[in-house]
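Incident review: delayed structure delivery

Summary: a single-chain prediction request sat in the queue longer than the usual turnaround. Root cause was a stuck worker, restarted by the on-call engineer. No data loss occurred. The affected request and its eventual output are reproduced below so the record is complete for anyone auditing the incident later.

Affected input:
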Amino acid sequence: MLTSVLDFLIRNLLEFLILLLLARFYLQAAKVSFRHPLGQFVLALTNWLVLPVRKLIPSIKGYDSTSLALAWITALVMHSVLLAITPWPFDFYSGSSVLALVLSATLELVKMSFYLLFAAVIAQVLMSWLAPYNPLMPMLTGLTAPFLRPIQKIIPPIGGIDISPLLLLLFIQLVLSVVIAQLEPYILQGVKLIG
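Output delivered after worker restart:
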């Protein structure tokens, strides 16, 4: 019972931090202004961690590598702690266990990035119908445009309706429910049990 509660709390709190760090990275990469309250929210909840570490991990080619590295480290810590609180004794010092944890953390970033993109596309579609001039629209467009433009070049609007968000959402769901769902258990099989 206690293990389940700890698992729930650790997973949800650290996944939320990973999402915030990834949002900070992608917003900065898309050169989106942080002036909107959502951008200010992301900065306020991540500055305590990003700003001190930025002295050790500088930006690379204009990208906020500090936020991305911290998101990956958080994912690595999360998976390590979740394995440590399970009732099965793991050998964290074996090469295959370390590799499995590194790959799990990397896959976690990919998964959270797809969740973030999925939420941005849904929000953008809803806002385009309900409040197209909302100040949040430039932020959402900055996040989604690099993914929607290639689809729009292949499939132009049909009858004046752009179906590229629908196709992107289908693709994201396919990747999350088929590819990532298959890889996660396969990667964690690399973690060695003691004994």
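Verification: Helices lie at 2-29, 37-53, 65-84, 95-130, 137-154, 164-188.
Action items: add queue-age alerting; document worker restart procedure.
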